[in-house]
Amino acid sequence: MRLLSTQTLGHQVGPSRRYSLPVMSASLLADLVLVGHLSIIVFAVFGALWALWWSWAPLVHLPVLAWAAYIELSAGICPLTPLENSLRQAGGESGYSSSFIEHYLVPLVYPPGLTSGAQLWLAASLLLLNGLIYAYVIARRRAVRRARS
Predict the structure, then answer these.
(1) How far apart are CA 149 and CA 145, in angstroms?
(2) Which of 7, 60, 118, 119 falls between 20 and 30 A from 142, CA-CA?
(3) What are phi and psi of 15, to 5 degrees?
(4) Residues of the domain holding 108
């Protein structure tokens, strides 16, 4: 897999100016989207743990958690999924090949047999796990405040 392809994109700038821009491999971009997608999933599941160390973590984590729960509860598709698929097609891939990233990460991001019922259970588990972690964080902070006063 090459980082830069030998192709260039010609873009019209103004009435008669053209410039060429090296094109990053669409397959590489698709792999990066997949890694980013997995990172968001892991952060949605375990991001509440950051609140144990950083008081600002919920400001970042709660919107991600809300988005993940919405996608699961609505049986929706994250916009990263069609983006990755279109990048793979642009890279000339008809489907997932056997690259390291695709072989090991695709089954985690897109588990086989994912049904709407399974998505509801995933959403409930996601919210319950994070609710328990945040309850612990709040209790711990209250205990620390009491001990200081």
Answers:
(1) 6
(2) 60
(3) -70, -30
(4) 25-148
Query: What gap in Å lies between CA 66 and CA 59, rounded to an integer?
Result: 12
Residue-averaged pLDDT of the chain: 78
Three-state secondary structure readout of 31-96: HHHHHHHHHHHHHHHHHHHHHHCCCCHHHHHHHHHHHHHHHHHCCCCCCHHHHHHHHHHHCCCCCC
- The candidate with the shortest Cα–Cα distance to 83, out of 118, 135, 47, 40, is 40
The whole-angstrom separation of Cα 71 and Cα 84 is 17
- 4 pLDDT exceeds 70? no
10 occurs within a structural domain = no
Q: Examine residue 1 and state whether it is found in any structural domain, yes or no.
A: no
Q: pLDDT-based confidence at 127, cuts 50/70/90? A: very high
Give the Cα separation of 33 and 93 in Å (integer).
15
Is residue 96 within 8 A of residue 88, CB to CB? The reply is yes
* Confidence at 102, pLDDT banded by 50, 70, 90: low
Task: Give me 53's structure tokens.
Answer: 């160390």
